[in-house]
Write a structure and sequence with these properties.
4-stranded parallel beta sheet
């Protein structure tokens, strides 16, 4: 966990925060940050110092809406070969999950990435193969790269990509919770850099730190935010300098721009967030499953969706509650019998709390 050098630094950070007698609430938007926080007991350690760090909408599987899951279920029933990551196929829909549909004879396949889905399409030219493309700016370049290489005509994607800065602005503007500072995701930031976050500090006076995933990274991120607040400052600092650069990955950004355009979209637990989706440009219509199979998906037109009874995933993703405040947590809802996506995904706060708190 900690080297002797890091342990001394960690103790110094904790001591300095304690001396300031603060009462602050920070939000991060990354499942890997949450995993590190809980696994290493940093959440409890920082609470003793007056700093609470909660998880926001940083789990790609969790923020994918019930509508998008139902779209894939319908395509599977319609005889398409549907592919997605393992976590995604376990998320319950209204009556079943993609995994459970295998027992009905539907062709549902788990893949490690979009390239695997393309290979399935190449090897099965008589099948329509659909890949559920989920994730933030981290995974969008991979989707873009594949489409730019002209995959086979029997391949398409159900595009569910979303962007992080716009969701953070939505949380701030909704004003449901106090947010004294933001710990920005390291993975997303390797792609977009630090500049896309700057408007949040400029317009809303929120301190921000881009942090890595080691325990000392997170402690340093918290300390840097505390220092900004103590000085009355609000700007974007980069703790993760060994990986993240101000300009980000320019080539990846260009691939995103070439393939996608910004759109408005709902997130699980949120209303429509303007300019937070990455929609396929019209020149890639032949790979857009929603347009290619519009007739199959027409039954969802105008349909409204809600969370399962008792499930508080939507509130969790907005930072309003902790998993322990959900009446289903660890009882009706476990990784073996998930009710909502926050218990399914390894990046979901419920799944993380269940795995580590039990130990």
């Amino acid at each position: 966990m900690f080297s002797l050098k890091d342990k001394k630094l960690a103790n110094d950070i904790v001591s300095k925060i304690k001396k300031l007698d603060v009462n602050l609430k920070f939000m991060h938007v990354c499942g890997t940050h949450q995993d590190s926080l809980v696994k290493h007991g940093l959440d409890a350690l920082l609470k003793k110092c007056g700093v609470e760090i909660g998880q926001g909408p940083g789990c790609p599987v969790c923020v994918t809406t019930p509508r998008e899951i139902e779209e894939m279920l319908i395509l599977a029933r319609a005889g398409k070969t549907v592919t997605s990551f393992g976590d995604m196929i376990n998320v319950p829909g209204e009556t079943e999950s993609l995994r459970s549909m295998r027992t009905e004879g539907c062709d549902v396949r788990t893949v490690y990435g979009i390239e695997d889905a393309v290979e399935i399409a190449q090897n099965n030219p008589d099948k329509d193969v659909v890949f559920m493309a989920v994730g933030f700016e981290t995974t969008a370049p991979t989707t873009a790269s594949v489409l730019l290489k002209n995959p086979p005509d029997n391949f398409s994607i159900l595009c569910c990509h979303r962007t992080v800065p716009e969701a953070l602005e939505a949380i701030i503007k909704m004003g449901e919770i106090k947010i004294d500072g933001l710990i920005e995701p390291g993975h997303v930031s390797t792609i977009i850099g630090s500049k896309p976050y700057e408007f949040l500090s400029k317009d809303y006076k929120v301190p921000q730190v881009i942090a890595g995933f080691e325990p000392i990274d997170i402690l340093m991120g918290a300390w840097m935010l505390v220092q900004q607040i103590e000085k009355g400052e609000a700007f974007v600092q980069n703790e993760y300098t060994r990986v993240v650069h101000a300009e980000g990955n320019v080539k990846a950004q260009q691939a995103i721009k070439d393939v996608f355009e910004q759109g408005d979209i709902k997130w699980r637990g949120f209303p429509v967030i303007p300019k937070s989706s990455l929609d396929l440009r019209s020149k890639f219509d032949k790979y857009d499953a929603r347009k290619k199979f519009e007739d199959d998906l027409v039954e969802l037109k105008g349909k409204e969706f809600t969370e399962p009874d008792g499930c508080r995933c939507g509130e969790l993703l907005r930072g309003l509650v902790s998993p322990f405040e959900c009446p289903l947590f660890g009882q009706a809802c476990t990784p073996a019998t998930p009710v909502g996506p926050c218990m399914v995904s390894i990046e979901g706060s419920c799944n993380i709390e269940y795995r580590y708190k039990e130990k």
